[in-house]
């Protein structure tokens, strides 16, 4: 028994060494693990933002007095607006139509008389609704400036602002409401999906294309040893790429990591195994490297990008699509990453998602074992 185990270990070491040599001779594997994360982090970290900043706001002030001037200047003191003054509403509407403005705040000539009156409204707001998300954010920012200024105005004049509800807002976990802190952790899952699936989606297909699979089948190697020998080097390479990505996320984008590094390492290792298993299964089914790479992008990357909750909220999707998201491994890892980075070690969130990924890994490995037996043995 010990002799058989020693032989198995020796064969496994030889298989792992062969794969490491293949990796070092093929720079594309190193590029996928270390260069691709940098490119994606720069593209998404700097190019994609759900924050509305530098909003081009038109201020139409029909009669400039102390009150209207003070209120209009409050937009200039905000970090979100780039105000531009107009004397006529038609001119501002034309600028809004031509996409030179994102919104309009209209102060009529009787602005001061309408202040603190229940009706009619003291200001009129018009927002470009082509981008619905930005329109909602713009309207919310304008409303925040308006109520903040109105409350200050009432206090300075010794009056009480007549509002039915006093709203005190408190944002947990991402108090600055910076979308980058939400996007970058999810981006780590997308990067690991690409690294894992692309690295392994072509390893078996490459053996078939180069004609080395027949020689491998003539060796004493068993199927589990072949699979383990293929996975171990790419697992190490993928985990190194993940750690490199985490360092960039913290150092480059100042994303906080409030959870433990051990929980991050455990969940990352489990997800990397799932991603590698998906890529290996694709590689076994497709005997052509180009086809395997295309399948990997369509089957793993696109669902991870669209259906994982990385950018698009799963709760806002139709019910059938929400059911489909349960088949996307990145969904569970994105939830874990966002929890670890922004909230901490919240185990009621982490453990169920770890369990789902472990189950998916088991299913993939069972399918791989069956397919590999049919194709290789």
Average pLDDT metric: 81
Helix content: 55-70%
Q: Rg to the nearest angstrom? A: 28 Å
- Straight-line N-to-C gap: 23 Å
Q: Unreliable segments (pLDDT under 50, ≥5 consecutive)?
A: none
Count of DSSP E strands? 4
SS content category:
alpha/beta
The percentage of residues in β strands lies in 5-15%
Domain module count: 2
Give a topology summary.
Blueprint: H1 2-25, H2 27-47, E1 55-61, H3 66-76, E2 81-86, H4 89-97, E3 103-107, H5 111-114, E4 123-127, H6 132-156, H7 179-201, H8 203-210, H9 213-217, H10 223-253, H11 261-285, H12 289-307, H13 319-325, H14 329-342, H15 347-375
Parallel strand pairs: 1-2, 1-3
Antiparallel strand pairs: 3-4
Describe this structure in words.
The protein is an alpha/beta fold. Strand 1 (55-61), helix 3 and strand 2 form a beta-alpha-beta unit. It is elongated and about 95 Å long. A four-stranded mixed β-sheet has the order 2-1-3-4, with helices on both faces. It has helices spanning 2-25, 27-47, 66-76, 89-97, 111-114, 132-156, 179-201, 203-210, 213-217, 223-253, 261-285, 289-307, 319-325, 329-342, 347-375; strands at 55-61, 81-86, 103-107, 123-127. It is built from 15 helices and four strands. It folds into two domains: 2-48 and 178-375, no CATH class; 55-156, abc type-2 transporter like domain (abc type-2 transporter like fold).
Key terms for this structure?
alpha/beta; 2 domains; 15 helices
In short:
With 377 residues, the protein is of the alpha/beta class. The protein has 15 helices and four strands.
């Amino acid at each position: 028994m010990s002799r058989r185990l020693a032989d198995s270990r020796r064969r496994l070491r030889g298989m792992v060494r062969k794969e490491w040599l293949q990796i070092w001779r093929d720079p594309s594997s190193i590029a996928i693990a270390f260069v691709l994360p940098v490119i994606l982090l720069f593209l998404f970290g700097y190019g994609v933002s759900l924050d509305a900043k530098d909003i081009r706001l038109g201020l139409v002030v029909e009669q400039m007095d102390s009150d209207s001037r003070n209120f209009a200047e409050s937009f200039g003191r905000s970090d979100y607006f780039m105000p531009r003054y107009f004397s006529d509403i038609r001119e501002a509407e034309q600028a809004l139509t031509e996409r030179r403005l994102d919104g309009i705040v209209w102060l009529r000539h009787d602005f001061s008389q309408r202040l603190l009156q229940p009706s009619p409204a003291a200001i009129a707001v018009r927002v470009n609704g082509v981008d619905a998300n930005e329109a909602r954010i713009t309207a919310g920012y304008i409303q925040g400036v308006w109520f903040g200024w109105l409350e200050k105005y009432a206090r300075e004049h010794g009056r009480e602002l007549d509002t039915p509800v006093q709203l005190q807002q408190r944002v947990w976990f991402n108090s600055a409401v910076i979308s980058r802190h939400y996007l970058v952790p999810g981006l780590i899952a997308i990067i690991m999906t690409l690294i894992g699936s692309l690295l392994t989606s072509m390893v078996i297909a490459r053996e078939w294309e180069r004609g080395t699979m027949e020689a491998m089948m003539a060796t004493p190697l068993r199927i589990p040893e072949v699979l383990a020998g293929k996975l171990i080097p790419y697992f190490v390479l993928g985990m190194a790429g993940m750690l490199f990505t985490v360092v960039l996320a913290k150092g480059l984008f100042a994303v906080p990591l409030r959870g433990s590094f051990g929980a991050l390492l455990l969940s990352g290792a489990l997800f990397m195994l799932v991603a590698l298993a998906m890529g290996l299964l694709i590689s076994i089914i497709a005997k052509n490297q180009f086809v395997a790479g295309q399948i990997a992008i369509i089957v793993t990357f696109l669902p991870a990008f669209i259906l994982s909750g990385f950018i698009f909220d799963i709760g806002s999707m139709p019910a059938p699509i929400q059911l489909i998201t349960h088949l996307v491994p990145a969904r569970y890892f994105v939830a874990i990453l966002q929890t670890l980075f922004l909230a901490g070690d919240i185990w009621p969130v982490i453990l169920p998602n770890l369990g789902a990924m472990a189950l998916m890994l088991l299913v993939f490995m069972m399918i791989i074992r069956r397919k590999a037996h049919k194709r290789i043995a």
